[in-house]
C-alpha cells in the first residue's frame, strides 16, 4: 500500500440508527476521534434538527467537520473531501484512530470512490432553470433529466430542486451526464477505509424510531431553531442548508404553507425516504461489513472489529 494512503474506519447507517451514541461508547475504549460525515452538521446554528452532539460531548471526545460553515454558504462534496483528508491526516499523525461517522451518501461516495472533475456553478444558467421550474414545475425538469441522464434521475426525487438543477446544469455545461462524471475519477481516493454498516433488520422498528426522534427534537425547541434561522435576511427556503430534511418542512409550516400535522407527517415521510436510500446504498456497497442495528451485542462486536483493524495498522 502506498505510503501516502490514509487509513480510517467508517461507521455508517441509515438515519436514526444511533450512530453517534455508538461512536461515543466506542470512544470510551478506543483512542479515536470522530469525523462527521453529515452534510447538515457542518452548519453552525443547525443543532437540534441535526441531532448534533452538544458542547460537553464534543469536549470529551474530539469531533471534526462540525460547525465548519455558515448556513448561508454552500458546502460541497469537494470541500468535504478536502476537509476530511486534512482531518484524517491530522488525527493519524497524532497516533489516534479516525472514525468517520455519518450517512451522507454523496460524501461517502467521495471518500470511497473519489470525485470526478465537475464544472463550477453557472449563476445565469441556474436562474434560467429556476424560471423554467417556476413555469413548468420541478417534476417536468426531472422528466427532462430522465431523458439525458436516467441513472441520476433514478437517484433524485422529482421534487429535489437542488439536485435536479445541478444535474441539468452539469449536463448543459459539459454535454456529459453527471452520473458519468461521478465515475470519471482521474486519480481516485487516497483512502483505505473499512466501512462498518449498520442495517436495521426491521424497517417498522426504524420507522418508529424516526417518528419518536422527530417528536423529541420538537420538544427540545426545533421549531424555534428554524424560526431563528428564518429570521436571517441571508437565508431563504431555497438556500441549500435549509433544504435539509426537517428544516425545509418546518420552514414551510412557518411560511403558512400547511398546518403542523402536515409538516410533521412530511418530515417523517422524507426521513423514511432518506433512510430507504441509505439502506439501498449500503446493501450495494460490496466492500462494507454489515452489522445488525439495535442488536444488544452491537457495541461489543464493533469494538472488537475496530480494535483488530487498529492493531493491524499499528
What does this entry show, briefly?
By secondary structure, the protein is α/β, with parallel strands linked by helices.
Description:
The protein is built from 14 helices and six strands. It folds into two domains: 6-115 and 185-313, Rossmann fold; 123-183, Orthogonal Bundle (Histone, subunit A), CATH 1.10.20. By secondary structure, the protein is of the alpha/beta class. 53% of the residues lie in helices and 10% in strands. Helix 5 (123-136) crosses helix 6 (138-148), helix 5 (123-136) crosses helix 8 (161-174) and helix 12 (247-254) runs antiparallel to helix 13. It has helices spanning 19-27, 55-60, 77-93, 105-113, 123-136, 138-148, 150-155, 161-174, 178-183, 203-219, 222-230, 247-254, 260-284, 298-313; strands at residues 6-12, 32-36, 63-64, 97-101, 191-199, 289-292. The model has no long low-confidence stretch (mean pLDDT 91). The two termini are 14 Å apart. The chain has a six-stranded parallel beta sheet with strand order 3-2-4-1-5-6, sandwiched between helices.
Amino acid at each position: 500500500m502506498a505510503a501516502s494512503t490514509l487509513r480510517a474506519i467508517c461507521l455508517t447507517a441509515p438515519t436514526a440508527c444511533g450512530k453517534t451514541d455508538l461512536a461515543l461508547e466506542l470512544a470510551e475504549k478506543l483512542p479515536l476521534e470522530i469525523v462527521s460525515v453529515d452534510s447538515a452538521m457542518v452548519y453552525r446554528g443547525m443543532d437540534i434538527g441535526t441531532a448534533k452532539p452538544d458542547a460537553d460531548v464534543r469536549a470529551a471526545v474530539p469531533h471534526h467537520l462540525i460547525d465548519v460553515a455558515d448556513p448561508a454558504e454552500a458546502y460541497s462534496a469537494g470541500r468535504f473531501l478536502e476537509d476530511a483528508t486534512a482531518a484524517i491526516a491530522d488525527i493519524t499523525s497524532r497516533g489516534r484512530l479516525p472514525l468517520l461517522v455519518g450517512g451522507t451518501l454523496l460524501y461517502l461516495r467521495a471518500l470511497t470512490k473519489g470525485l470526478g472533475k465537475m464544472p463550477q456553478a453557472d449563476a445565469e444558467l441556474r436562474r434560467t432553470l429556476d424560471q423554467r421550474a417556476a413555469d413548468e414545475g420541478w417534476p417536468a425538469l426531472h422528466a427532462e433529466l430522465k431523458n439525458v441522464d436516467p441513472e441520476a434521475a433514478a437517484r433524485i426525487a422529482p421534487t429535489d430542486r437542488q439536485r435536479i438543477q445541478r444535474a441539468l446544469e452539469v449536463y448543459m455545461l459539459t454535454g456529459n451526464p453527471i452520473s458519468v462524471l461521478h465515475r470519471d475519477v482521474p486519480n481516485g481516493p487516497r483512502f483505505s477505509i473499512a466501512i462498518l454498516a449498520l442495517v436495521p433488520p426491521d424497517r417498522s422498528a426504524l420507522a418508529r424510531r424516526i417518528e419518536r426522534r422527530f417528536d423529541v427534537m420538537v420538544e427540545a425547541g426545533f421549531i424555534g431553531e428554524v424560526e431563528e434561522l428564518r429570521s436571517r435576511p441571508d437565508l431563504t427556503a431555497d438556500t441549500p442548508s435549509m433544504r435539509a430534511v426537517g428544516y425545509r418542512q418546518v420552514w414551510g409550516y412557518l411560511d403558512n404553507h400547511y398546518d403542523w400535522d402536515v409538516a410533521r407527517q412530511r418530515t417523517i415521510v422524507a426521513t423514511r425516504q432518506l433512510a430507504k436510500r441509505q439502506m439501498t446504498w449500503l446493501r450495494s456497497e460490496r466492500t462494507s461489513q454489515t452489522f445488525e442495528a439495535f442488536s444488544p451485542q452491537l457495541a461489543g462486536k464493533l469494538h472488537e472489529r475496530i480494535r483488530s483493524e487498529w492493531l493491524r495498522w499499528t
